[in-house]
Amino acid sequence: MVKGANATLTDLSDDVGSVIVSLGWASPTGEGDADVSVLLLDSSGKVRSDGDFYFYNHPVAADGSVQLLGKTPTANGSEDRISFDLSAVPGEVERIVVAASRYEGSSFGELDDVRITLADAAGEGLLRFAVDDADSVTAVIFGELYRRGGGWKFRAVGQGYATGLAGLATDFGVDIEDDAAAEAQADADADAEAGAEAEAGAGGGAGTVAAGSGVLAGPEGQSGAGAPVPAGPVPVDAVPAPRRPDGQAEAVKKRAARPRTAKKKVTLPATVKKTLAENDSWKTARLFPVSALKSDRDREMRATSVLLSVMAQVPEFSRRLTAAFGAPAGRMETFTEVSLPHGDSPRRPDGVIRVERAGKLWTALVETKTNGNALKAEQVQAYMDIAARRGYEAVITLTNDVALEGSPLVDVKIDRRRKHKVALWHLSWAEVAHQAQMLIRHEGLGNAAHAWLLQELLHYLQHENSGCHGFQNMGPSWVPVRNGIDDETLCQGDARALEVVENWERLIRQVCLRLGGELGQKVLPVQRARRGTDPKERRERLADQLCLDGRLQAELRIDGTPGVLTVGADLRTGKLRTAIDVPAPDQGYPLSWAKRLVRRLEQAPADLHVETLLDGAGPGPRGTLERLRPEPADLLPKDGATQITGFRLSLFKGMGSGRGNAETGFIRSVDDAVHRFYTTVVVHLDAPAGRRRAARQNAAASAAG
Asked: The pTM is what?
């Protein structure tokens, strides 16, 4: 589409009761990002209340009409997806504005391939609009959905705002409080040490809710409008807190030392209470027992039944798993071992999901595999055909494998002559566990029984006998590729190297899910690819590079950290390296930088390698933390004139040799290396400077107010 053009959704597809809108962008450095927002407008062109503003700290509408699904990596960068159930949008809402904003003084002109796409409930792309003239603006309206003649249309807008998210929200009637005076006072009072203390007190990660006040505080003390829903990624120039109605102007409570949720939300403690058992041989009675499972068929049947049962009882959890597949928000029922006619003999999918809303049914067939068993293309094809004939909307596969962009797990043929379209979606058991952990540990649920049910599900999935352990095998090519690298016989173009690269990408995606579930923060792999590069071409290029230098590389972006975490596996030396680059502060002296860094790393491992990064002057001084602790000045260049741009922190460890997930396996060693590096090194580092300043300003503004 071109700017200003519009399209009627029903002209593009018959299946637009719900749609998925995706906002995407790419960055030359792989670090550029933005946050999406949605505004529901009435006939006056304004929000009915601040609750019609959906953003990182208010991602879900109570009626299911809007749900921000979060970020997913793409070949060129990342993509934010939003699920709209258009049949559930209140009748007085006439327009839905879809926008995004940048933070820390960044603009959209620094990003490539800024775009919005729209897909129907079956996942088929319907339209695309590229925003080519964003330039120096910090917020952009990408497009809008609006009612016309009883249906919905989409308009490509592409309007920029130099005033960021706050200016955009104000234009549409979101009530904004003026905190300028308080922020000015915060700047006058804050110095370097006070800023460090404010940062330590503010903590990192998800936002908090001042219970009873109606104010949402995002990460690093930022505030925004909306209902008390836990936070996601946060812009520094976020929307100030909405004005409280008369009689509710109570003081904003000081931020807690760790993320918390509103009082009505229930989360379970990370550590269990002291057991009353006499000894360790006594096992707690579990709602979903695992010990009796003997065969793969038993595991598949039990895992499917357990998961679908919990989904039917915990709507917050089921929406997390099905909204991205086009399922509406409604009454859900789930079934197992259903018999459906197909040719001469009936077929029995592992499960069926049905959702009812406004008298309409959404149905998905579920095919499950455990213990690393692969999907059978013939079986999935049969379910696709059955779903098409019976008017079902989707087939969902659920295995330990991780699907890659542009590389389906199974190839199925879709009969384009059929009017009814069926979408094929995939879930990994690791993603199911991640969503359960995010809800029960970090974001909370509205019901204590729901939290307990999810806890029991998580116990089941993590049990060694469940078979639901996520990606756990580097494949049959792992050993031949390692041997070929050792004896220098692996040639470019070898299909086995491509298989190893694909499985490495699956492993990194799973590492992100596990770490993100533990931290309650977004952890995403960074893809540094040239604009427009096809995912398959990118993997082929990485496979050729593996043949040349014997290395696998990946980068992870974690909210609230000063840089990108890199993970490297050197198959020649059998070493894993985890590292992060810490930028030099804007102010102060190099010696004070070095001393502060060493002081912050007081609890880090003694074998941590620290290297000084210099501006175009080659490698700088380096040494282990053990040697640098008494002499931080050894990190400074001898000439004293070369500009220091930052410091690189690295940990090395031996990598597992096996292809599986055993104690000595490669997969376990990578997972352990990333976890150790984050928990022993990254947690001690300062947050990005822009967010520290925002924390000081908001803390001072709260005290002044």
From this structure: 0.75
pLDDT tens, position by position, 22-54 = 998 888 776 678 889 999 999 999 999 988 999
Mean of pLDDT over the chain: 81
The answer to whether 118 and 418 are in contact (CB under 8 A) is no
Is the confidence at residue 609, as pLDDT, over 90?
yes
Region of residue 271 (left: phi > 0; alpha: psi -120 to 50; beta: else): beta
What Cα–Cα distance (Å) separates residue 168 from each residue in 603, 621, 665? Answer: 44, 47, 51
Contacts of 113 (CB under 8 A, 6+ apart): 24, 25, 26, 76, 77, 130, 531, 532
Q: Compute CA 633 distance to the chain's CA centroid, rounded to the nearest angstrom.
A: 39
CB neighbourhood size of 602 (10 A)? 9
Helical H runs in 520-624? 535-549, 590-600
The dihedral through the CA atoms of 342, 348, 350, 355 has a sign that is positive
43: region left, alpha or beta (phi > 0 left; psi from -120 to 50 alpha)? alpha
Residue 533 has φ and ψ, to the nearest 5°, of -70, 130
Enter the tokens of residue 453.
């049910």
Q: Count other C-beta atoms under 10 Å from residue 362's C-beta.
A: 23
DSSP 386-445: HHHHHT--EEEEEESS--BTTB-SS-----TT-SS--EEEEEEHHHHHHHHHIIIIII-B
pLDDT at residue 198, rounded to an integer? 38
Measured between alpha carbons, how far is residue 178 from residues 48, 153, 166, 186, 314 in Å?
21, 36, 11, 14, 40
User: What's the rounded mean pLDDT across residues 403-410?
Assistant: 81
What is the pLDDT, as a whole number, of residue 274?
75
Contacts of 685 (CB under 8 A, 6+ apart): 561, 562, 580, 582, 600
Residue 549 contacts residue 571 (beta carbons within 8 Å): no
Span of 196-200, 561-565, 617-621 with lowest mean pLDDT: 196-200
Q: What's the CA gap between 576 and 568, in Å, rounded?
A: 6
For the sheet with 609-614, list strands across it.
Answer: 523-525, 551-558, 565-570, 575-583, 644-654, 609-614, 619-624
pLDDT tens string 233-268: 333 333 443 333 343 333 333 333 333 333 457 777
3-state SS record for 472-493: CECCCCHHHHHHHHHCCCCCCC
From the list 342, 362, 343, the residue with the least C-alpha distance to 352 is: 362
Residue 95 pairs in a beta bridge with 41, 146
Cα separation of 46 and 218, whole Å?
24
d(Cα 163, Cα 167) in Å, to the nearest integer?
5
Tell me the C-alpha to C-alpha distance, in Å, between residue 531 and each of 34, 542, 557.
18, 16, 19
How many residues would you count in the chain?
A: 705
Radius of gyration of the chain (CA): 26
First-to-final CA distance of the chain: 47
- What pLDDT band is residue 205 in, cutting at 50, 70 and 90? very low
If you average pLDDT over residues 333-354, what whole number do you get? 90
How many CB atoms are located within 10 Å of the residue 62 CB?
10
- Cα–Cα distance list, 291 to 203, 301, 432, 455, 543 (Å): 40, 14, 21, 18, 41
In DSSP notation, 222-246 reads -EE-SSS----S--TTPPPPPPPPT
- The token pair that represents 326 in the structure block: 């086009």
CA dihedral defined by 267, 273, 279, 280, rounded to 10 degrees? 30
Q: In the prediction, which pLDDT does 419 show?
A: 62
Q: Could you tell me where the beta strands, DSSP code E, fall in 42-111?
A: 53-54, 66-73, 77-85, 95-101
